[in-house]
Amino acid sequence: MNPTRVLFICLGNICRSPLAEGAARKLVRDRGLEDRFRFDSAATAGYHEGEPYDPRVGAVLQKYDAGFEHRARRIRPEDFRAFDWILGMDEENLRDLRRMAPADAAAQIALVTEPWGGGRVTDPYYEGDWACEQTYLELEDLVERWLERWLEEADGSTETA
Questions:
Q1: Does residue 119 sit within a domain?
Q2: Is 56 left (phi over 0), alpha (psi -120 to 50) or beta?
Q3: What is the pLDDT of residues 102-135, one digit of tens each?
Q4: Number of domains in the chain
Q5: Is residue 149 part of a domain?
Q6: 123 belongs to a structural domain
Q7: pLDDT of 31-90, one tens digit each?
Q8: Distance CA 105, CA 81 (A)
Q9: Residue 50 lies in a domain
Q10: How distant, in Å, are the alpha carbons of 4, 59, 151 from that of 7?
């Protein structure tokens, strides 16, 4: 069985998308599902390419045992073919992703908040330390819901959306 490959996207790839990636990695590790999923994150803009995640994000990921090595990168055309799912953090990310997607894109593009009926993930960039933890907890809940969906789809329990 091929692993489900998921790319999390935000504007700069130093806050929300690495928080989502960290939460996803931790959740699958805790459930013993590392062989069934691959996660990465990227940005729609190149503002922070090559930089580590925000230090506040690093502190939250460490607190929740979800840390990982990270360098910000911008999404590439080949990502649209290499990943099964590309999940944006807000409507602006979603619009940018749809505009950037090449004609042969294979990935399904959606909002990470789809399990909540849409909306945006809190962007902690201009907020205090508390916002990074709040955002992590939001994303942990959302990723858990996505994992359940992907596991059901892989096991043939539901139809693919």
A1: no
A2: alpha
A3: 999 999 999 999 999 999 999 999 998 899 999 9
A4: 1
A5: no
A6: no
A7: 999 999 999 999 999 999 999 999 999 999 999 999 999 999 999 999 999 999 999 999
A8: 5
A9: yes
A10: 10, 22, 17
> In the numeric block, which tokens belong to residue 27?
């959740």
Residue numbers annotated as active site: 10, 16, 123
Q: For residue 157, what pLDDT is reported? A: 57
pLDDT score at 1: 78
CB of 124 closer than 8 Å to CB of 53: no
- So what's the pLDDT on residue 154? 86
Phi and psi angles of residue 61, each rounded to the nearest 5 degrees, phi first: -60, -40
- Is residue 12 helix, strand or coil? coil
> Can you read off the two tokens belonging to residue 61?
């990921």
Contacts of 33 (CB under 8 A, 6+ apart): 147, 151
Residue type, 145: R
Give the domain extent around 94: 15-99
Q: Using an 8 Å Cβ cutoff, are 64 and 92 in contact?
A: no
Cα distance between residue 95 and residue 118, in whole Å: 14
What pLDDT, on the 0 to 100 scale, is given for residue 115?
94
Separation CA 81–CA 104 (nearest Å): 7
Q: CATH number, domain at 65?
A: 3.40.50.2300
CB atoms within 10 A of CB 112: 30
pTM: 0.95
